[in-house]
Amino acid sequence: MADYPDFREIQKEDRSLFEAEFNNNPPKISEFTFTNLYSWRDAYKFKFSFLGGLIILRSDSESEIRFFEPIGKGDKRAAIEKVLNDYKCVFIRLPEETKALFTGGARFRVDLDMDNADYLYEAAELVKLQGRKYDGKRNLIKKFESSYSYEYVKMDGANARESLNFEEKWCSIKNCDNIMGLSKERIAIREMAGNFSEFGLRGGAIKIQGNFSALAIAQKLNPGTLVMHVLKADPNINGLYQAMLHEFLSKEAEGFAYVNLEQDLGREGLRKSKQSYHPVKMIKKYTLQLAD
Asked: Per-residue confidence at 212, pLDDT binned at 50, 70, 90?
């Protein structure tokens, strides 16, 4: 354990600690699963500490130290104020409820961060794809199904590692080695595949001619929401992305009212794709810092 102001890196053995807090205080933002924090720990240079019964999550990956919303039950405003005063830093990805603790005063600066807002959808709607607004999606899926002989495969701890061959192929197409974000994502996906069963993940893949050609990895975010960590498809196969999402949700989203497809990171193509599935809500996030 590390008590504030001391911090230590996240280790796999910390999973029960984080998951207990998430179970007691179900999160809404996609960042808050242990899978996400652990798999991206090197990219974000995560460290954590304890303050007032809360987990203080720190990221040293940028030129300035950044903090995430304190995790757990406790006086979040008091904890955030102390960290702000001590570090003259910025808090990122704060959800609406925490942002509301700091509105109405001149001492704090609060900014909306729409690039990191999560897209929330009704799971049943993405399974049924009914109505004119989904005509394009249904047509792409039908075209794919009529053009390819394929197999949907439920992922488990054994075949999760096999999916990494597809990830490497996808990265060669997308030039991951020369794009920092994709390079870091590759490492995170390897962590997920290597800890698939232990982290309680759900996954599915589409095989064409015996080879992985699309991949989806998700898990429970809160009792009503499934969060999608990974959704990839061979970009050279028309309709495969849409088919992968539809197949996965049809088979793996039972019991969930909503699916969170995470953020668009300000990328126009990704934004257009996520908006085309008609989210029912955007889970907005904010940055917070001292006004001066």
From this structure: very high
Backbone phi and psi for residue 92, each to the nearest 5 degrees, phi listed first? -120, 160
High-pLDDT (> 90) share of the chain, %: 92
CATH of the domain at 140: 3.40.630.30
- Residues 217-251 as b/e (b if ≥16 CB within 10 A, e otherwise) read bbbbbbeebbbbbbbbbbeebebbbbbbbbbbbbe
140 and 215 in a single domain? The answer is yes
Here the contacts of 218-221 (C-beta below 8 Å, separation 24 or greater) are 218/248, 218/252, 218/259, 219/33, 219/35, 220/256, 221/26, 221/27, 221/28, 221/30, 221/32, 221/33, 221/260
Q: For 268, left (φ over 0), alpha (ψ -120 to 50), or beta?
A: alpha
Residue 228 pLDDT: 98
Residue found by looking up tokens 């001149």 in the block: 106
For the chain, what percent of residues have pLDDT higher than 70? 100
Find the domain containing 38 and state its range. 8-117+286-290
Residue 146 neighbours by CB under 8 Å, 6+ apart: none
